[in-house]
């Protein structure tokens, strides 16, 4: 089988078909391994830590090596991975630079909850790092694979979001939807609320007002979700709406949040905008910003546009308003 026989290619730009095909081939293999769970050799075993100091699990390393190998010879010149300190050259004459989070949500490997792979593609520059430390608006493609009850590829080439589902009957990724848009009006927010005491006042005020529900200034009830897999949260929001926040907070090392710009936030932001939503680093549009190091972190807020703008508006409230208890927060009372 050639790489491109793993996915229906009609909507994929010709030059990128080998790259997307290779991602789907490895995604397919990983989905089988992940589905076997404990029948496999300890996928969730801790091996040590990666360049960024995060714990590295066996599956993080397996996925990284498999993607690097499969992408060699597909037109990828520069390969940047969460699991590697520096950029690796795969194909000196390749046209593309690909950044990858080979396994996202690795705390969920052992508990049978959705995990995934996130990727971002640029036209390569001569400089390895220069190919990634640039305006995120210059991405030419972005997407993720999610390994859940269904294995799905969500991808954009800058003209809307395409959804492909892996058919377990023949292992082929088949087009399930195109021009996907984030539904408006879902009353769901996703944030790791255990960090409440570390957040800034505007983030606390925003969440306080959601929690106050019908009795608060928002005058409606909300639901909260936290899967701890960015791919799973993104998939839910692309499918039924809502908002995701991983803000900066005052824990040491979290001054810029937790998530990484190059291979997590930039590709998710491109997908979200292509689906009609918004993505910011709290207030400022994320696309258009650039990372200054390969593993740099950034706060991330994304989801349906109206909700993301509201988070930004809380940052503009005067001090007495963000400090006030929700009952007294006058400006947001309808
Ligand atoms: O454990 P926390 O602080 O809630 O962080 C959860 C976040 O960390 C991540 O798992 C980080 O990704 P990795 O598993 O690739 O390191 C995200 O998927 C998720 O949104
Ligand atoms: Mg991740
Ligand atoms: Mg990861």
TrEMBL record:
Binding residues annotated for substrate, in chain numbering: 104-107, 192
Protein's pathway: Carbohydrate biosynthesis; Calvin cycle
Binding locations of Mg(2+) 1: 82, 101, 103
Top-level taxonomic group: Bacteria
Binding site for Mg(2+) 2: 101, 104, 264
Catalytic activity: beta-D-fructose 1,6-bisphosphate + H2O = beta-D-fructose 6-phosphate + phosphate
Domain Fructose-1-6-bisphosphatase class 1 C-terminal: 182-315
Molecular function in Gene Ontology: fructose 1,6-bisphosphate 1-phosphatase activity
Boundaries of every Fructose-1-6-bisphosphatase class I N-terminal domain copy: 16-177
Cofactor detail note: Binds 2 magnesium ions per subunit.
Cofactor field: Mg(2+)
CDD domains membership: FBPase (cd00354)
Pfam (any one): FBPase_C
Subcellular location: Cytoplasm
E.C. no: 3.1.3.11
Keywords of the record: Carbohydrate metabolism, Cytoplasm, Hydrolase, Magnesium, Metal-binding
SUPFAM superfamilies cross-referenced by the UniProt entry: Carbohydrate phosphatase
Top EC category: hydrolase
InterPro entries reported for this sequence: FBPase_C_dom (IPR044015), FBPase_class-1 (IPR000146), FBPase_N (IPR033391), FBPtase (IPR028343), Fructose_bisphosphatase_AS (IPR020548)
Family, as annotated: Belongs to the FBPase class 1 family.
Known partners and oligomeric status: Homotetramer.
HAMAP family per the UniProt record, alphabetical: FBPase_class1
Protein name: Fructose-1,6-bisphosphatase class 1
Species name: Thalassovita aquimarina
Taxonomy of the source species: Bacteria, Pseudomonadati, Pseudomonadota, Alphaproteobacteria, Rhodobacterales
């Amino acid at each position: 089988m050639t790489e491109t026989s793993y996915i229906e290619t009609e909507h994929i730009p010709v030059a990128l078909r080998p790259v997307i095909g290779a991602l789907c081939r490895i995604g397919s293999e990983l989905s089988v391994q992940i589905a076997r769970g404990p029948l496999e050799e300890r996928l969730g075993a801790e091996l040590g830590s990666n360049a960024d100091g995060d714990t590295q699990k066996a599956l993080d390393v397996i996925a990284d090596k498999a993607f690097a190998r499969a992408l060699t010879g597909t037109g990828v010149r520069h390969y940047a991975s969460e699991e590697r300190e520096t950029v690796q050259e795969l194909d000196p004459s390749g046209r593309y630079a690909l950044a990858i989070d080979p396994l996202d949500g690795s705390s969920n490997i052992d508990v049978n909850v959705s995990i995934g792979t996130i990727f971002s593609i640029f036209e390569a520059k001569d400089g390895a790092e220069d190919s990634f430390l640039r305006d995120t608006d210059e991405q030419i493609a972005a997407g993720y694979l999610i390994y859940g009850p269904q294995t799905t590829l969500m991808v954009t080439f800058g003209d809307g979001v395409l959804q492909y589902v892996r058919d377990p009957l023949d292992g082929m990724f088949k087009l399930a939807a195109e021009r996907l848009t984030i539904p408006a009006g879902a009353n769901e927010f996703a944030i790791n609320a255990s960090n409440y005491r570390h957040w800034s006042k505007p983030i606390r005020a925003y969440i306080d007002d959601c929690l106050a529900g019908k009795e608060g200034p928002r005058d409606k009830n909300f639901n909260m979700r936290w899967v701890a897999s960015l791919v799973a949260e993104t998939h839910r929001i692309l499918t039924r709406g809502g908002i995701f926040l991983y803000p900066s907070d005052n824990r040491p090392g979290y001054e810029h949040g937790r998530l990484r710009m190059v291979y997590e936030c930039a590709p998710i932001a491109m997908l979200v905008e292509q689906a009609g939503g918004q993505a910011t680093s709290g207030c400022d549009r994320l696309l258009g910003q650039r990372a200054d190091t390969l593993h740099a972190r950034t706060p991330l807020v994304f989801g349906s546009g109206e909700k993301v703008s509201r988070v930004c508006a809380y940052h503009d409230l005067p001090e007495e308003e963000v400090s006030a208890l929700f009952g007294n927060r006058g400006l947001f009372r309808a």
